[in-house]
Amino acid sequence: MLEDLIKLEKSTKSKWNNIKLVYDFSIEKKNELKRIISEPTKLISSDCEFIVFGSLARNEYTNESDLDWTLLIDGQVKPNHQEIALKIKDQLDKAKFKNPGFSGIFGGLTFSHDLVHNIGGSDDFNNNMTRRMLLLLESEPMTSDSPIVYSRVIRSVIKRYLQVIFDFSKNKYPRFLVNDMIRFWRTLCVDFAAKEWQQNDYKWVIRNIKLRFSRKLLFVSGMLMCSSIYSKNFTEQEALKVLEGFIYRSPLENLATFFNNNQKLKNLGKEIFSSYNYFLGIMNDKSQREILMKMKPNEIGDNKLFQKLRKKGHIFENSLIEIFFEKKSPLRDFNRKYGVF
Amino acid sequence: MPKLGFSTGSIAKSNYKLALKILENVNGIECIELSALREEELEGLINSLDSLNLSKYSYVSFHAPSKINYLNEIDLIKYLEKVLDKNYNIIVHPDIIVDFNNWKDFGKNLCIENMDKRKSIGRTFLELSIIFEKLPNASLCFDIAHAYQVDSSMIDSIDILNSFREKIMQIHVSEVNSESRHETLSLESVLAYKNVSPFISKDIPIIIESILNENEISHEILLNEFIFSDNISSRKFNKLNSIFHFQK
Fold this sequence. Notes:
Chain A is mainly alpha-helical. Helix content of chain A is 64%, strand content 5%.
């Protein structure tokens, strides 16, 4: 799974041990999770699937991470779906997995109908959009090796984005998808400010750091996905399969693949992965993460840890800007055409 | 025109004789699937194979039981060997197979059907590939309704139809509801199936599996003609349009 990353690490003569460390831990936790949920998920029908999101799906899980999950339902609605979700929650609590945040986006039921039919429009509430975009950007099914429900919902969502233009063969590019991707990133940024307003300084620093790194990585992975079908003359089926390929890989893997395919940009890749490796090292260090969790916004100026992360964040962002707009980058045309207007 | 026909089970459940009688007077069909979907139908149907008047049909296939409770695999195979003597294709659900080696002698007459969402094998292109690795000579009965239920984008259907083109012996058509029961076709299914019909060779027999009463037979034939034909007559199109109100 880390083949592309290891290839890039070698070609840039780098060492990204923190990425590998959290990757190995994520695989270990996924196996543990599969064992834990095997009992309650025996009760679920062929219309449901247990899906994880967040750091576990990105293979960046640490001992301090929350577990974001949902029971995805794509079929007949049944009252006992909630009972199953509660049984799953019980099992996860017993196994000391940390509950998802308070937003209500995760830790319960998600219905495919809303994900597929409410894209945009007044019923596409923040939670629905977040679930949909995270399904595309950082999700993984846990209940079976052949995830029929997951794959069916993913394809239906993508098909919605492609079919808004009615005839894909004539238009070739789904602005709809890229606009939603950009909307999602901007929403994350706006919500950061909203949480600051609502929750004062509670977890402000850690949220700020995540926005600089992991949230930004998600957006970039999404833009790579969108650009993958730009000016390629694909049929709808071909476009769907290419987009699907991105969804089944983690954001870091998508980014590593991009640099391996664009060797002339590999020095930017080195900067990006080295900064991200540093970020993951801090996230994986219990004492340093705790310092960040407790830190108040007015303390960041004097804090060396925050300042170093901020500096690494700038390197990360500047290098990403380069791959979006650098002359040699294959993303330049795409971003000029669709990234702003 | 497509080579259309019915499963006897879709016309009269557990009563192949009645189904054949009803179908005697139906125009526009040239294929038949003799259904022993329930284990208890198997012996009677096999024993009467020689006496059935099937002269109307250019294509005959046989659907093996979808579950076996009383028979063991070897006994079932012995029964089905009598069908093989007739050189009929035998439609088999892969989940009833215990030992793939026992089925190898059926060759291409063993027609594996892709499964609905409830089963754990044989649903997708990848799952079918695993089965065909074990049974390289077996053929495929492509159930378009199962495939649509498993992947409504129909991408997997296209993969199956392209990759197993040479293996496809017949198509099953119906609507399957959320509990995987066969029903008459809806507009939603008609449009989804029509999108992939160009990937299906025109000479492949189309077996309708929708559960029908006698009055619904001609309507279901019309819908299948629409799905599997490049063009249908204006008269037939107008008839369809009066039901579905779509544009040509």
